[in-house]
Amino acid sequence: MSATSDSDSDDILVVDITPASSCVSCRAGHNVHFIHARRGTERSTPHAVTVEVDEAARTVMLHGVDAGPQTWHNHDPGRLGDALRRSEGRAVWLPEYHLLRVPAARRGRQILFNLARPDDWVPCLPRQEPADRDAPPLQTTPGLFRPPRAGEDAHEWAEAVADALHRDSDRGSGAT
Questions:
Q1: Alpha-carbon torsion 86, 9, 69, 25, what sign?
Q2: Helix or strand or coil: residue 106?
Q3: Which of 16, 25, 121, 132 could disulfide-link to 30, CB 3.0 to 4.6 Å?
Q4: For the segment 49-74, what is each residue's pLDDT rounded down to a tens digit?
């Protein structure tokens, strides 16, 4: 599958980062974490590229970048190839965050693909079902990794999470 981009429009309304496979990894070449997606779309310089996907080898060849053709890997090349076919070959490379942005079928929507350099590529991390479905949930530090509360601004939320992390690290080190 080959693709080219004739537009590097910045009118992203919705970005699809939904995992399409059973892989749960957010490492390079796997799923796109929401923070990675946000930073990549806000802070990266877009470049129109030509893309070739080899689904069997899980490789993605980018043409049109400054250093010449580059080989990358993605854990779901079939999904990437399908997206490129639906977008009529339009794709944009966000190099600072190794993201490939492909327009989705619905106007204003984009699909992001996380690419990995060959030396950074690791196999997928499969989703695992708990061995005992009746086991109690994992214990976590209260307030750790919680969403912001109603009326709590981002700064307050970040401070609350940082305090919880600090308390958790103090407990682990024996400090009081």
A1: negative
A2: coil
A3: 25
A4: 989 898 888 889 998 877 678 899 99
